[in-house]
Amino acid sequence: MKARSGRRKKKVAFQGERGAFSEEAARKLLGPAVVVVPCQRFEDVFRSLEQRKTDAAVIPIENTLHGSVHENYDHLLHFDLPIVGETKIRIVHHLIAPADVPFAKLRRVYSHPVALNQCLSFFAKNRQLEQVPFYDTAGSVKMIMSERPPDAAAIASEVAAEIYGAKILRRSIEDDRQNFTRFFLLHRPGKNRSRAPRAGKNAEWKTSVVFTTRNVPGALFRSLSAFSLRDLNLAKIESRPLRGKPWEYLFYLDFIGRVDEPTSQNALRHLGELADLLRVLGSYPRGD
Amino acid sequence: MKARSGRRKKKVAFQGERGAFSEEAARKLLGPAVVVVPCQRFEDVFRSLEQRKTDAAVIPIENTLHGSVHENYDHLLHFDLPIVGETKIRIVHHLIAPADVPFAKLRRVYSHPVALNQCLSFFAKNRQLEQVPFYDTAGSVKMIMSERPPDAAAIASEVAAEIYGAKILRRSIEDDRQNFTRFFLLHRPGKNRSRAPRAGKNAEWKTSVVFTTRNVPGALFRSLSAFSLRDLNLAKIESRPLRGKPWEYLFYLDFIGRVDEPTSQNALRHLGELADLLRVLGSYPRGD
């Protein structure tokens, strides 16, 4: 597949059906012309990039209501696929139907149970509508557009409505507007950095690391001194108990700084003296 | 409702259908005789306890694959309902059907999409079985037991099979055995502590707090000094960006210690000097 410039179009893997929020994140990170490759499981997304079937991968890493996606942190540790970008997407749910189905005719609404559950005020105000759980938000739009039930709508993203040629009947029916998901963009190691999203001159950079500490009181405190003694600001820290090792923890930490700056290098060398394991997962321009 | 002793039976609120993993956690924390009150949303669980409709509440707070349940941390901050106990439940998925439905007849399996997705190896080995998404794991058992489709099973917990009088056809069909959820037990403030789960003499205690730091480098480092300078061990720390306040964070922190011990009191006083907001969410015997 070639773009008009003659350059091969970039392929990006993500988990979910076409029109999933991960696809929206992929287009925000890589532009509208990117070729998207939907995968069933997160592991398939990582494998697709590792096996060079795709040029990039986009994964959700945390949500403001549901927390960090530990499974993807596990994959980031297991696969050697650096983070080269991040973005945040507001999770907005729309009521979507075929163009010839009016709101007054609706009796059933299909979507993923999590999405249905995030629109409870809408259903409380529209008691004629039955909630029908479906496998996937975007998949529910795909289904109503192919099977065309005369009284059914779906709840999904704007991108899903566009992709399947459906109409948005009601916009933004979610209960909580403060529902954001943060996504990472991954490449293969050593891949040409020029293909990563361009950062403005004054862009702030973030670096994400994972480390483990020894089982002694104050171990985390000493580890953080590597950053605080150098006035490096933290953007995230999270502990996670190590499986089968009581009192030992894995930490996810993001700090503000580029990994190739001297201060960052010194902080990481210092942290390396204190940590049993230390892995830099990537360094990337801060997403909006 | 009275127990044989004449004492009123304790009522506990949880989110989900009868037979949900939260019910399993409630029985583990409060014994098999407890009266369970299923609620639709997490907020309803907190409200039920606050309005004295129930005597206790059980909520999931984090999962080893999916991370912390931020929504419940939000409710813990909003409601004044202290944590008085914790427990961990391994998430085990069983294939469940009516007693007269043999495995060979099965063609469809109902469950919550998350549960279906956690049993992919089982479905890969049994390609005759179609996955059918349903609203709730326990709810899918309830449905097959009332509607009795001749070729359908459900995926849910052992407790769900018991409650609805169903049979377990295949045990532990989940892909990942390291799937645990941690639950909190909540009471109303000042409620008789003797009703909280008894802790052994040598039981270790945990205290959970939430605090915010000012927007300066090293703020978290200084906050943790309140614990490390007193050799208090941390069991969890997690940062969460404050809504609408870039660079300001809320921290969830668990440390090992009883809130009424002098060292804990000193550490909390010290942390209070550094933090803009500090709330003790509860102090409780460490769950297994």
Task: Provide the descriptors you would attach to this structure in a database record.
Alpha-Beta Plaits; elongated; D-Maltodextrin-Binding Protein, domain 2; 27% helix; homodimer; 288 residues; 6-stranded mixed β-sheet
What do you see in this structure?
The structure is a homodimer of 288-residue chains. Chain A contains nine helices and 15 strands. The first copy, chain A, is of the alpha/beta class and 288 residues long. Chains A and B meet through strand 4, helix 8 and strand 13 of A and strand 4, helix 8 and strand 13 of B.
Condensed summary:
The first copy, chain A, is of the alpha/beta class and 288 residues long. In chain A, strands 1, 2, 3, 4, 5 and 11 form a six-stranded mixed sheet that branches.
Structural class of chain A: alpha/beta
- The CATH homologous superfamily of the largest domain in chain A is termed Periplasmic binding protein-like II
Termini separation of chain A: 31 Å
Q: What is the β-strand count of chain A? A: 15
